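re: ur question from yesterday

yeah so i grabbed the chain u mentioned. its 127 aa long if i counted rite. heres the sequnce exactly as i have it in my notes:
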Amino acid sequence: MEGRSISPGKAEGEAIVSTEPIGFYGGIDAQTGIVIEQGHPLEGESVTGKVLVFPNGKGSTVGSYVIYGLEKNGVGPVAIVNQETETIVATGAILAGVPCVDGIDISTINTGDKLIVDADNGTVEVA
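ran it thru and got these structure tokens back, copy pasting raw so excuse formatting
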């Protein structure tokens, strides 16, 4: 799948997919990498070491620093794949050095799929 590079880098990993937007501030614990937003489809799941796939972000600009905190604490995703990356997620991914690609039809990706993300070239491959 071809998309647009938001934050460069390459990563491989298991996908964790949400069909709903993710708000990082108050939505994911920066100390543990666990989704804590009540009622979110991924509530209780860990993003650590996974390719985090979701349509777009939502919420406070502090979310950018949560993404950075996840990486700094060693509990972040290895890559982020979006339908449309908005400024909060883009800034966080760039600050944290997390490969990020958008413009991807995420409906074709399932939790558990192995993904190869080449954010240098804006591509995502299901292995």
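noticed a couple things. The mean pLDDT is 97. also Residues 18 and 54 are 5 Å apart (CA to CA).
anyway ttyl
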